[in-house]
Amino acid sequence: MRPTPAAPLHMAPVVATASPALPEPPPSGHDEGVHVKLVTAIIRPVALDEVEAALSAAGVHGMTVTEVRGRGRQKGHTELYRGSEFAVDMHTKAKVEVVVADTAVDAVVAALVAAARSGDGDVGRVGDGKVWVTRVEQVVRVRTGEQGADAV
């Protein structure tokens, strides 16, 4: 009688274990009528310091800033580099994202637009940027489990 070959050394036995259930998040305690919005702005990088100060003055303390590239009506231009001319189609911009309660959206957008606009008066220049508002379905603060406007 021949002995049964042993399992190869690289194969470990599979043991099924139950994963622990995730704890329920604590109740948020916020009014169901208060919604949360994401305010996103694409601005000139030179305006970033003024935008940060204006948002802070408007009561926004948390924000995400990302360096992005893109173009709009500003279009491209040509530059000389080491004697060669080349086209620059994309411009470096700063993307600013803030999550705020619905009640603060108008004040935040107004502060952002005023700080990002170049020049004097009510009219800026091409390339000053764009601001848009998006509805946020759910937001949870990871540290505490707070949800909705309480997590902002």
From TrEMBL:
InterPro entries on file: N-reg_PII, N-reg_PII-like_a/b, N-reg_PII/ATP_PRibTrfase_C
Pfam entry (one): P-II
Residue ranges of the TM segments: none
Protein name, per record: P-II family nitrogen regulator
